[in-house]
UniProtKB/TrEMBL annotation:
One of its GO terms (biological process) is phosphate-containing compound metabolic process. This is Carbohydrate kinase PfkB domain-containing protein. Keywords: Kinase, Transferase. It comes from marine sediment metagenome. Residues 1-301 form the Carbohydrate kinase PfkB domain. Signal peptide: none annotated. One of its GO terms (molecular function) is kinase activity.
Length: 331
């Protein structure tokens, strides 16, 4: 039985590498194109499987009945991910994402959700899905339809299974609903854009202040890209900040930041279900995301041995997390 269950999108990524991102109305030349498996759910599952091992991670999601689906299943099974929880939607294309990546690794993504948007609530009651959810030690929920998110959060609470939520693109069209549901996840992941959309804030300190004001009673992890990550303890307590990998000191360079947030979530969840505390999980997640940025593929997440060797090098370089009390609102 899988230790970790991931529920989220499965996409076919068409990545176009350009010198710089175009402005509206401008055409730029593409240097080269890659076509690989992606999607937040698939990426998180693969990142976790490379740490936890074969048959330790299961994926719940939806695909069409097409050639993309066949390639997706083959890629996931090659990584040791259990695919019994994937539904196949008749008459729908499998999801696809179109990505522009500039020479600094920054990107713009447009997604065609396809079958991902048709994952139905009734599918969670299928026997094979129920067994996966009831037998695991943790659940990672990404950008599945909102009704799926709500039901999974309830199921996790009912079975006392920790649930980690990275809501992503669900936030903008469902701000109030996500804000309400987010309080019930054990760990909530947000990047800077998502924090701005959910909290109406800009920057780490204002995000922490707003979280204090809202009284979130769970752990909130802010993914800060090149600045690393910060985790706010429940009830406006301690902030644990993990800096980004010092790539230059490690002799590495940024190639692409696509998928780094997914690798972060997968790495965090993997170390957490192995029995590590949240602080250790944060450190390893930040390191995993940093290594992913040095590789061109979306699923460039490291194997466990590589990740732990890198973390040891960081300690030798004096890499340390920073701890401080969360800022309070003025007045």
């Amino acid at each position: 039985m899988a230790s970790l269950v991931v529920c989220g999108a499965i996409n076919w990524d068409i990545s176009c590498f350009v010198k710089r991102l175009p402005v509206p109305g401008e055409e730029v030349t593409i240097k080269h194109v890659t076509r690989v498996s992606g999607g937040t759910g698939g990426n998180v599952a693969v990142a976790a499987a490379r740490i936890l091992g074969t048959k330790e991670v299961a994926l719940i999601g939806a695909l069409g009945r097409d050639e993309i689906a066949r390639q997706q299943i083959a890629a996931l099974e090659d990584e040791g991910v259990i695919t019994d929880g994937i539904d196949y939607i008749e008459g729908m294309e499998s999801g696809q994402a179109y990505i522009l990546i500039d020479q600094t690794g920054q990107n713009i993504i447009a997604s065609h959700l396809g079958a991902n948007a048709r994952l139905g609530l009734g599918y969670l009651s299928k026997e094979q899905v129920k067994q996966l959810l009831q037998g695991c030690r943790g659940i990672v929920l990404t950008d599945s339809p909102l009704e799926i998110a709500e039901e999974l959060i309830k199921l996790a609470k009912r079975h006392s299974v920790p649930l980690l939520w990275d809501p992503g693109i669900l936030i903008s069209p469902n701000r109030k609903a996500v804000q309400s549901l987010a309080r019930h996840a054990e760990v909530l992941f947000l990047n800077e854009t998502e924090a701005r959309a959910l909290l109406g804030t800009d920057g780490l300190n204002t995000s922490l202040q707003k979280l204090n004001e809202l009284g979130f009673g769970n752990h909130v992890v802010l993914k800060l890209g090149a600045q690393g990550a910060a985790m706010l303890e429940p009830d406006g307590g301690l902030v644990i900040e993990a800096p980004a990998l010092p790539l230059e000191e490690l002799g590495l360079n940024v190639v692409s930041t696509v998928g780094c947030g997914d690798v972060f979530a997968g790495g965090f969840a993997a170390y957490y279900v192995m029995g590590n505390d949240l602080r250790k999980s944060l450190i390893m997640a930040s390191a995993a995301a940093g290594l992913n940025a040095t590789r061109p593929e979306t699923r460039g997440s490291p194997e466990r041995a590589t990740l732990e060797a890198t973390e040891q090098r960081l300690r030798n370089l004096g890499f340390r997390v920073r701890e401080y009390r969360a800022p309070k609102t003025a007045g």
